[in-house]
């Protein structure tokens, strides 16, 4: 059987040895039709949004505006969204130089000029562009704490703008349940200290996970941050298997996002009757699989449907390597998952991006993890707390050698963009609309 995984900017073809396998389940998003003429539908939605006045009315008489966009790690179709937004703001009386784009980098690196051109499309060179810097303490305003004790330090430039517009992509998220909405503000525009507490070790062992909203302390905390910081309007999208816009959600930042999460769950959720012995997963392709830090999301998704003691084979291009210097250093000095989890018990310990290593260790508790990548030398990949393989075929052979005959196999061609679950497994999904 031949399957294709999203890999880098293309696809990776795998041949599965059918005669040696049991049931094979290929878990993909539902094949929904993309929106017809999305630019026109966006303009209509800006005039008739969910739970808010039309953007043109909200913008009238404002001093300036900021449009918050995701960084390079999210495939948001800004080239479709920005022209309609800017056109509407200009029609409301705002001059072009009063319409700012702010890249919500969170703790990620700044985007290069070439990346901004690719991310933003033709408008990249015609609007003032700013990039958030979580490490600049003076660039944030202290807004107090959430009821959970998360310090709310938010980008000063954002807070000082008269009209605040959030854009983004709604997809399953390994911590917040779904991405988009409130995540543009936190972690997107938050300080190191805010993100450190929001992504603390104890919280990530709590009721967090893809699709989980009810009782999810991170989701609830992020909503508190959003309400404190404020936002006037939301434009979020869902994407189909080919990354075409399948859903468009505009209006009140909470109500429109809730509507989008219902759509995203319906589009991406796939249930298995029983856990798989072997899960073969993509990390979602570029840009998500460009670094090991982001690619771990593919491992985390697979861990939700693999049986205890099973095997995960992740295929990720890792075209940009491992990730931040902090994350790479943390990996290099960690001897084993058990070693790292001991370090997490020390309240004095903190390293930027430690939360993704914690997710890797959680997956390692459940399953053996193999990694194929042509973006790193084999010896470098072998130092990432997983078993490196030289080819997908080698990974499959090595996995089968440790499993009983005719194992159940699940394949995730889009990796973490799919909300994969096992019927009856604890940690049920929350209701997206709440």
Architecture blueprint of SSEs:
Blueprint: E1 2-7, E2 10-15, E3 24-26, H1 38-47, H2 55-59, E4 65-70, H3 78-91, E5 99-104, H4 113-120, E6 129-131, E7 140-145, E8 151-155, H5 156-159, E9 163-169, E10 172-173, E11 177-178, H6 192-198, H7 201-204, H8 217-229, E12 233-239, E13 245-251, H9 253-268, E14 269-272, E15 276-282, H10 292-303, E16 306-315, H11 325-332, H12 337-344, H13 354-366, E17 368-372, H14 378-381, E18 387-389, H15 392-401, E19 409-412, E20 419-422
Parallel strand pairs: 3-19, 4-5, 4-9, 5-6, 9-12, 14-20, 15-16, 15-19, 16-17, 17-18
Antiparallel strand pairs: 1-2, 7-8, 10-11, 12-13
Structure description:
This protein is of the alpha/beta class and 434 residues long. It has 15 helices and 20 strands. The protein folds into 2 domains: 2-28 and 275-407, LarA, C-terminal domain (2-enoyl-CoA Hydratase, Chain A, domain 1, Alpha-Beta Complex); 38-267, Rossmann fold (3-Layer(aba) Sandwich). Helix content is 31%, strand content 24%. A 6-stranded parallel sheet has the order 3-19-15-16-17-18, with helices on both faces. Helix 10 (292-303) runs parallel beside helix 13 (354-366) and helix 12 crosses helix 13. Mean pLDDT is 94; it is low at 426-434.
Rg from C-alpha positions? 21 Å
Q: What do we call the CATH topology of the largest domain?
A: Rossmann fold
CATH class wording of the largest domain? Alpha Beta
Q: Specify the structural class.
A: alpha/beta
Count of DSSP helices? Answer: 15
Q: In percent, how helical is the residue content?
A: 25-40%
Overall shape: it is globular
Total DSSP E strands: 20
N-to-C span:
41 Å
Question: What is the name of the CATH superfamily of the largest domain?
Answer: LarA, N-terminal domain
Uncertain segments: 426-434
Strand order of the largest sheet: 3-19-15-16-17-18
């Amino acid at each position: 059987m031949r399957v294709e995984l999203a890999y880098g900017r293309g696809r990776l073809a795998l041949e599965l040895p059918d005669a040696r396998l049991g049931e094979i389940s290929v878990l993909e998003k539902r094949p929904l039709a993309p929106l017809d003429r999305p630019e026109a539908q966006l303009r209509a939605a800006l005039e008739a949004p969910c739970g808010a006045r039309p953007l043109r009315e909200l913008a009238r008489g404002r001093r300036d505006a900021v449009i918050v966009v995701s960084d390079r790690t999210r495939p948001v179709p800004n080239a479709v969204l920005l022209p309609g937004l800017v056109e509407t703001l200009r029609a409301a009386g705002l001059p072009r130089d009063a319409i700012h784009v702010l890249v919500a980098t969170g703790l990620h690196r700044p985007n290069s000029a070439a990346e901004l051109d690719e991310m933003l499309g033709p408008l990249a060179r015609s609007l003032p562009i700013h990039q958030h810097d979580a490490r600049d303490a003076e660039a944030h305003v202290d807004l107090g704490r959430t009821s959970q004790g998360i310090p709310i330090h938010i980008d000063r430039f954002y807070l000082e703008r008269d009209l605040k517009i959030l854009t983004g992509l709604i997809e399953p998220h390994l911590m917040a349940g779904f991405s988009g909405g409130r995540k543009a503000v936190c972690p997107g525009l938050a300080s190191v200290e805010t993100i450190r507490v929001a992504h603390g070790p104890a919280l990530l062992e709590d009721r967090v996970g893809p699709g989980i909203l009810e009782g999810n302390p991170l989701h609830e905390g992020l909503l508190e941050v959003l309400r404190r910081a404020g936002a006037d309007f939301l434009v979020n999208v869902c994407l189909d298997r080919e990354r075409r816009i399948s859903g468009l959600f505009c209006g009140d930042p909470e109500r429109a996002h809730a509507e989008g999460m219902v759509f995203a769950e319906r589009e991406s959720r796939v249930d298995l009757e029983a856990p798989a012995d072997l899960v073969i997963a993509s990390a979602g392709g570029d840009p998500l699989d460009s670094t090991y830090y982001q690619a771990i999301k593919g491992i985390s998704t697979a861990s939700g449907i693999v049986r205890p003691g099973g095997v995960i084979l992740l295929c990720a291009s890792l075209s940009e390597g491992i990730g931040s210097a902090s994350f790479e250093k943390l990996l290099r000095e960690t001897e084993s998952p058990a070693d790292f989890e001991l370090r997490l018990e020390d309240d004095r310990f903190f390293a930027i991006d430690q939360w993704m290593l914690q997710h890797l260790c959680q997956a390692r508790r459940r399953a053996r993890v193999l990694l194929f990548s042509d973006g790193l030398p084999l010896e470098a990949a072998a130092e990432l707390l997983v078993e490196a393989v030289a080819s997908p075929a080698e990974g499959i052979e090595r996995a089968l050698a440790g499993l009983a005959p005719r194992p159940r196999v699940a394949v995730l061609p889009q990796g973490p963009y799919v909300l994969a679950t096992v019927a009856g497994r604890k940690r049920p999904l929350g209701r997206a609309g709440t």
